[in-house]
Amino acid sequence: MIRKLMLGAPAMILAATLVSATGAQAAEPATCSANTVFGIVAHGGAMSKRIKEPGRLAIMKAALTKARASLKAGASALDTVEILVRTFEDSGKFNTGKGAIANAAGMVETDASIMDGRDLSAGAVASMTAIKNPVHAARLVMEKTRHVLLVGDRGQAAVEKLGAQSVPPSYFINNKIKDTSDAEHGTVGAVALDRCGHIAAATSTGGFDAKIPGRVGDSPLVGDGVFADDNIAGFSATGHGEFFIRYNITKDVADRMAYLHESIDDAMDHDIHHKLADLKAEGALIGIDKAGNIAMQWNSAGLYRGYATNSEAPIVAVYEGPTQNKRAQ
Ligand code: ASP
Fold first, then answer.
1. 236 in contact with ligand 1, CB cutoff 6 A
2. What is the tens place of the pLDDT at every residue in 197-221?
3. 208 lines ligand 1 (CB under 6 A)
4. CA 22 to chain centre
């Protein structure tokens, strides 16, 4: 693919895109302000049924408000998505981090990923039983190892050595709760476009209710639960992970945009409302394209979702509410 650069100032293009012989990204300016357009979109999980709102919307709105201010001040998309997802992980209100639901053995196992649209570098962890912030562990994998995905006890020991914080089992609200058949699954995720024109995406989850221990879903898998490419768009997924894995949903939507020249809305609509819906697979996607257009689509009863842009203050909703697609302004 011919990779086009979208940025204004030549020096900034150079700083943003130079890759050293070892593959490490050259230093990015501490802040960037080449573009006026920026945006952040986040989700807190696809909902299979209507439930009493447990306080997620307020957390989302506050996190989006901070993220918008940071992006406006020149923060990178990568830092912004990590910080936002960590906030959700620490809140205990979402199915990840502190609030992750337990597997069939009554143990929390989290999966997470992060992807940098500048060079498609990515990091992920799966089946983490003690990591406080799985998304940070994923970033450590991306930035401090030669690998993309570390799993299980040995992967966990490796990310602890790299600096990921561990917590005791009592930290997780749902640890030891075996019957999660009535729990609402879900995932959290964020995608941002920064003022340098860079896109990053992150996804973090406790996985599916009552999953078999060791089961890994789509959330830590590049092209399934997460994807980001500065030249196309970024995405984070939630829903029935097995289908997102089998149909490579986030990469499929990006490919539709790249090869069929579909808009982000149309490409997402195809996979959520046709491909997945035809399979009776429940799920949702959020995304932002290189021009700043935002899309949020779901075929489930609802989707915890919200966004903020250079021209719009944060808006959050779960069932009815703001439009599913948002044009850049
Ligand atoms: N996609 C997640 C998984 O399959 C669960 C969810 O988003 O509801 O692990």
1. no
2. 999 999 999 998 889 999 999 999 9
3. yes
4. 27
